[in-house]
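testing teh design pipeline on a random one, pls ignore if ur not involved
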């Protein structure tokens, strides 16, 4: 008889990947008697998920969570969410994830780092990468859209003014192309809860 695992991996549980283009990868833990818990690991596009689901890192995380629940069972601990939460609060991996998220949120260039990290997983064409890097350079020159807290309506408008003053020959089409790239990653940052509000809710391009 096949051994039943306590932990498994779930992607797109809420069915929002096709609509949003991104969804959560979660560890699903079932303790029995209706006691279950979903633990969010990261956000992935469908393409990123195809690669991530085969990664050693995901397999190791699944193994660690399984071991935690098996340990609870072997020690005769209550198989409850409360007991599981207590055990998870002591896991180095969860602490590491929190530290990494806190670090990028406090990084003066956190939004720039975020864009580059997302780009690395998107398999972009070389010409597209060059265009994106030009936009990143413009954000660095502007200096007020580099961290997540900079992503405000006011700063997006100021960036537009800055770019037009920097080169008066830039056309509206060119500016729209700059904004489309920033908008893409601002939307992802909002969907992933790095920012409380999407500054591009009213289009700038």
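output:
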């Amino acid at each position: 008889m096949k051994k039943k695992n306590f932990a498994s991996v779930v992607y797109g549980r809420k069915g929002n990947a096709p609509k949003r283009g991104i969804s959560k990868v979660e560890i699903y833990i079932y303790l029995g008697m209706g006691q279950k818990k979903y633990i969010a690991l990261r956000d992935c596009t469908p393409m990123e998920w195809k690669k991530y689901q085969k990664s050693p890192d995901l397999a190791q995380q699944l193994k660690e969570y399984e071991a935690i629940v098996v340990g609870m069972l072997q020690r005769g601990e209550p198989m409850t969410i409360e007991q599981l939460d207590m055990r998870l609060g002591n896991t180095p991996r969860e602490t590491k994830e929190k530290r990494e998220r806190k670090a990028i949120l406090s990084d003066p260039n956190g939004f720039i780092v975020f864009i580059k990290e997302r780009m690395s997983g998107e398999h972009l064409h070389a010409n597209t990468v060059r265009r994106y890097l030009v936009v990143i350079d413009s954000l660095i020159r502007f200096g007020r859209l580099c961290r997540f807290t900079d992503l405000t309506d006011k700063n997006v408008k100021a960036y537009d003014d800055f770019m037009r003053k920097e080169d008066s020959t830039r056309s509206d089409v060119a500016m729209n192309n700059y904004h489309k790239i920033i908008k893409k990653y601002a939307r992802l940052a909002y969907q992933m809860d790095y920012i409380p509000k999407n500054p591009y809710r009213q289009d700038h391009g």
